[in-house]
Amino acid sequence: MTTPVSIHADRTAGRLEIEWADGHRTAFDAVALRWLCPCAYCRGEAGLPGWLDTAPTLTAEQTRLVDVHLIGSYAIAPSWADGHHTGYYPYALLRDRCPCPACAAGREPFPTRASEEAPA
Length: 120
Prior knowledge:
Elements lengths: L3 E7 L4 E6 L4 E5 H6 L4 H4 E2 L2 E2 L15 E7 L3 E6 L8 E2 H6 L4 H4 L16
Antiparallel strand pairs: 1-2, 2-3, 4-5, 6-7, 7-8
């Protein structure tokens, strides 16, 4: 389920599209993808909250997708226009957080704007 067969980063449209081995398709807009960043700076470490946990207002540069690199056979690493590039997004995370209606129906929403709170 978490094996992609195709990954397409449309920098102009600000979208990341993934086709999975089971035929499912996932599409993230750049803003949602940046909110999902799992790196220690954004999510925190050692029990301390990360920057994204403070519900900042994201700028256009922070949500402009510049590039996407493959990390082995398990993750991608997006690069953002503000220079941030340390988030490794495992395929399991991307599939788990698929924003399509069918996948999202069974879980709490993940914040995509500063005004939304992260799930407990």
